[in-house]
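I have been asked to look over a protein record a colleague put together. Alongside the sequence sits a line of tokens, each denoting a local backbone shape. Please read both lines and tell me whether the tokens look consistent with the sequence. Take the sequence as given and treat only the tokens as open to question. I have pasted the whole thing underneath without changing anything:
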Amino acid sequence: MLAILLSALTVGATTVGGLVAVKSKDRFHLILGLAAGLLLGLVSFDLLPVVFAHSTVMVNGKIAAVSVAFLVGFLALHFLEESFAGHEPVDSDYEHDHSHYGNIAGGLGAVAMAVHVFLDGLALGVAFHVSNKLGLAIFFALLVHAFSDGLNTVAMLKKSGHLTKAAAYLLLVDAIARIGGATLGNSIHPSPAWLAIYLALFSGIIIYIATSHILPEAHSSHPSKVTILTTLIGVAIMFCVVTLL
């Protein structure tokens, strides 16, 4: 039940991200840089140690299945976006049409979004089977991700003139898919080995989001050392959280 409630809170994070984008459009590249650092730190210091600690399944007796799952997660999201939605970096001056999910008006874009967000919720539900600590760590990752989604989506919606209607549509899809994924993840009970494989898959997705979406967007129109610094601060924060708490 906790996973389901927390998944609903991520919808609010998307809304907050959108509001921040509206209020500080020339500053949110710094927030994106920080968000990328937080996600990279979370995967490196928290998720991957859990993944390899529970890794027992091998491919051809030589390669850990979690390594394959990590790569599959990264590439699957890339191919999904290229096939259904597409993506190009957004800039803070809204010079290009943009959405984190590509053409949100199209049915295929909505499908890509729903699958992506559903996997987020599924990871949250499954993580609580390992421990409350891991579940809360993934919840934190999803908050960061949802927040950046709000930032990016508003950039396109503001220019298109359909901010109110499209934002409501996106929030509805976000809520249904993420809560649905969390509900399914909460109801299944995978073995530790298969749980590690799924978390590795999710880690690949998170790394893709951080490196292929958030970081390029953070630097697209403001290539500055300050943005790099915020990314390093995000990594350092996660290091401190994991090692101290």
Q: What stands out?
A: Residues 2-244 form one domain. Residues 88-109 have pLDDT under 50 and may be disordered.
